[in-house]
Amino acid sequence: MKVLFAVENNAGLDSRLDTRFGRAGFFLLYDMEEQKVFSIQENQFRNEDHGVGIKVTTFVIENGCQVVIGAQPGPKAAAILEKANIKVIADDKGTVKEVLEKHQKELTVG
């Protein structure tokens, strides 16, 4: 299972969750089966004038993520994620490592 975290900075598992979804600083992609970060990318959409949430949801889908963790997406982005059967866990407090531990049961594979 691939999980996308909307984070403020590029610090691996110590990256802090961002208080924004579509305008987060970076996206950290985590593989639950491998138990490792496989990508951290700067959010190329964060400074655009409009349509950011929709562009980010397209990014989520194209990267094969089944779960998104971060600030609550806006209504349009949330609707797209729901339609794509992507689980949203609204949590913007702490580091990726802390959030992984907190939501371990929801993210258990198998």
Give the proportion of residues in helices: 10-25%
Q: Distance between termini?
A: 10 Å
* CA-atom Rg in angstroms: 12 Å
Low-confidence stretches: none
Order of helices and strands: EEEHEHEH
Number of strands: 5
Main sheet record: 5 strands, mixed
Mean pLDDT: 94
Write down the oligomeric state: single chain
User: What structural category do the secondary elements indicate?
Assistant: alpha/beta
Fold and architecture overview:
The chain is α/β, with parallel strands linked by helices. It has 3 helices and 5 strands. Helix 1 packs parallel to helix 2. The protein is 25% helix and 25% strand. It has a 5-stranded mixed β-sheet with strand order 3-2-1-4-5, covered by helices on one side. The longest helix has 11 residues, at 52-62. It is globular, with a radius of gyration of 12 Å.
Which helices and strands occur, and which strands form pairs?
Elements: E1 2-7, E2 26-31, E3 36-42, H1 52-62, E4 67-70, H2 75-83, E5 87-90, H3 96-102
Parallel strand pairs: 1-4, 4-5
Antiparallel strand pairs: 1-2, 2-3
Helix pairs in contact: 1-2
